[in-house]
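CHAIN AND CONFORMATION:

***
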Amino acid sequence: MKTTFSLLGGIAATLLTIAMLLTAGWVRPPIHGEQTGFRGTGQQQLISAQNLRILQAANALPEPIDKASSSGERATEAYKNVQVLTDLSTEEFNRVMIAITQWVSPDQGCAYCHNTENLADDGLYTKIVARRMLQMNRHINAAYTSHVADTGVTCYTCHRGQPVPSNIWFENPGAPHAGGMSAHNYGFGHPSKSNGATGLPVDPFKPHLLGDETIRVEGKQALPALSGASIQQTEQSFSLMIHMSEALGVNCAYCHNTRNFGGWEESKPQRVVAWHGLAMLRELNANYLDPLKPVYPSNRLGPLGDSPKANCATCHQGAPKPLLGQSMAKDFPELGGKPAP
């Protein structure tokens, strides 16, 4: 009898192990926990040892590039048609070009943006886009220290060795519908990557990261007219919050005290940083990315003809801080980062 029970127990354990390996939702121990709020509030972030190793590998920095002198011949003297990096020396300018090639187009090389027979030529759309991205990069490092702090950003923060960043977004038309009152359901009931595989709206980005819709999910009174948030606004906000959680690889408690989601007085400083990040994305999408639509060829536009835009995942890529908080910008004063001491 004892042998039978042991055999059955072994079979059950084997089947359970197989089920854990072949079905979603199981995480192999050990699990690392980090208390990020006051003790006893349950504001803890969890990650498995395996996922931590994967995250660290995905956020390894590229090979460093030797620093350049800011003195000597100016870039505008050595090259024609320099419109953005006009304050750099020729050495600094060349260093930035080498870095961009490494960060954005390591396989394509300089020819991805330049006519190699005439570097001053603006015939390639990629050069026009890159010029605007350099302006945006400098603007972020100068104007949004409330979000990027002294860590700053470089082209590598988003591109990670790819001409097109992995995480961009376009306006989402949702699934096709009949006409009349059923012509549009705003993406409800269609699980997707953007809404965390839920039935929430599939496009929380256009109203919140391009438009200026209020992000509010917790009405204080029963009626929308009194609480200030309709059911539709609430569901759009939830969809955006799910995106933020997955983009940073964290849970709600990273910013909120879940006993009072709406109360700023019980939230952590990260919520203020996130608020500035949302404001930053709205400006970048409205002033830098969306206006590039006429520059792109049709194959680079979205299904509704709009240009690629940024959301939280574009920079964070599953990490609470882009590149796990490692700063490349401090070594690139050419891009508006503070010089290394």
Q: What stands out?
A: The beta strands are 31-35, 44-48. The chain is about 40% helix and 5% strand. The mean pLDDT is 86. Residues 113 and 127 are 5 Å apart (CA to CA).
